[in-house]
Structures are given as C-alpha cells and as structure tokens.
C-alpha cells in the first residue's frame, strides 16, 4: 500500500512525525506538508501563484521516508502529492494538535486534506487529538492509531473518515458528527502598541449528543466518523419541491 501523509500544522509538527512512524508499518509512506502552520484554513487552494516543493526529511531511526514541504495549504499538498505520487492508495492527514469535532469540521485544514483526497478519487482519513497544558503523548496513542488505521484500511472503498483521539482512549467508537450551535465569540483586546485587535473563539453552547464525535471523545473513546462530500439536504429538497414548485 502507498500512503501519502500531510497535515495543517506544518511539516515540523510532532504529530506528523508520529503518524508517519505508525503508518510506515502498513506500507510505503511519503510525507508532503505545508512549510508553515495552516490550521483553520479549511479547504483553501492556491491558484494565483505557483507552488514550490523542498526536501524536508522527517528523521527517525532508519525511516527511509521521503518528505517534502510546500508553500501552500493542506489541500494543495494533497493535489501536488497525488500528482507526483500517482499510485497513492490512501491520504492520511494529521495527527492534528487540536480536536476536529462537530462544527469545527467546517474550518479544519486537517479534514480538508482528506476531503481533497476523496475529490481526487483517493481514500482520505483525518486524525486529530486535543492539546491540553502538555503536548499530546503520541507514544501512548500509538497503539490506538495503529488499531484505527488497520480497521479503516480493511475497507478498500473510496471513503472519507474523521478520527479524533482522546488523551487516554479506552476503546474505539463509530460516531456521527455533532451539529450543535456554537458561540463563535469575538474577544477584543489591545496589542503592545495600544492598537485594538480581536480573537475569534469557538465554544459549543450545548452539551454533545450521545453517539456523536464530541460525546465519544468526552467519554474517552476514539471517535471515527464516516463523512460524505454531498451536502444536499435531501429532506429539504423533497419538501421545497412539494411546497415551492418551480
Ligand atoms: Mn492544525
């Protein structure tokens, strides 16, 4: 199996090194990732300037992994990577330093890379974990990352998955996306030069529903959500066709 790995935290993130190390047990791994952090960039692509590619080895004991950094977004990295490595079987994105649960899927650069893979006809898996006061313990997560990959690699169908690891997982759960309102608060502040600035924060307003991704991670389960690219609201489509015929 040939595996392409990217992320949105950038090539120097410990999360991508951890993922490359674990994934290399399953097949031939190539890393292609943004040269700087691209978190919360969503599915942005670079179309008004060229992209450049620089060798940027991820080194751990005899890894033999080819790694590249790109002056672009996570979606750019997948587009470029799947062009250069045309036989890619699966794209992995992560492990993101921060959760990508519920509504944050709309902003996530980590998930966008996996979405880009599926748009190009390649299986895509996004992997994330929360960051507390300390760095994530990737050594402790490794057995769960390996178990999740083994599970998802069994299904050869074109698919998109969003995976989130709690800090200390007890098991795996299939979940659906939690769709609850969040506050999207703007917090004003002042910079050291006395100029006004603003922070954008996202805090969910309601508790998570059982069976959802947020609920699973809050209860120490690895959350695995199969996603689709078709955003059509089928129920609403049937309804508007009936009540508002055109
Ligand atoms: Mn990130």
TrEMBL record:
User: What name does this protein carry?
Assistant: 5'-nucleotidase SurE
Quote the subcellular location field of this record. Answer: Cytoplasm
Q: How is the cofactor bound?
A: Binds 1 divalent metal cation per subunit.
List residues of the Survival protein SurE-like phosphatase/nucleotidase domain: 3-182
State where it is primarily located.
Answer: cytoplasm
The record's section on Pfam families has: SurE
Q: Do you know which HAMAP family this protein is assigned to?
A: SurE (MF_00060)
Q: Which UniProt keywords apply?
A: Cytoplasm, Hydrolase, Metal-binding, Nucleotide-binding
Q: Which PANTHER family match?
A: 5'-NUCLEOTIDASE SURE, 5'_3'-NUCLEOTIDASE SURE
């Amino acid at each position: 199996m040939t595996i392409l790995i990217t992320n949105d935290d950038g090539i120097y993130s410990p999360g991508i090194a951890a993922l490359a190390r674990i994934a290399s047990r399953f097949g031939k791994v190539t890393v292609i990732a943004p040269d700087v952090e691209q978190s919360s960039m969503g599915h942005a692509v670079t179309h008004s300037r060229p992209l450049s590619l620089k060798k940027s080895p991820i080194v751990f004991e005899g890894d033999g992994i080819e790694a590249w950094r790109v002056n672009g977004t996570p979606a750019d990295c997948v587009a470029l990577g799947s062009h250069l490595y045309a036989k890619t079987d699966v794209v992995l994105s992560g492990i993101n330093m921060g959760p990508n649960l519920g509504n944050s899927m709309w902003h996530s650069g980590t998930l966008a890379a996996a979405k880009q893979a599926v748009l190009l006809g390649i299986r895509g898996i996004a992997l994330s974990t929360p960051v507390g006061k300390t760095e994530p313990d990737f050594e402790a997560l490794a057995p769960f990352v390996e178990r999740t990959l083994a599970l998802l690699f069994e299904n050869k169908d074109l698919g998109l998955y969003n995976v989130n690891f709690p800090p200390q997982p007890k098991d795996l759960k299939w979940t659906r996306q939690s769709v609850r309102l969040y506050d999207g608060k703007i917090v004003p502040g002042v910079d050291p030069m006395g100029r006004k600035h603003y922070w954008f924060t996202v805090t969910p307003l309601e508790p998570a529903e059982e069976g959802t991704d947020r609920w699973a991670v809050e209860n120490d389960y690895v959350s695995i959500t199969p996603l689709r690219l078709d955003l059509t609201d089928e129920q609403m489509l049937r309804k508007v066709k009936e009540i508002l015929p055109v």
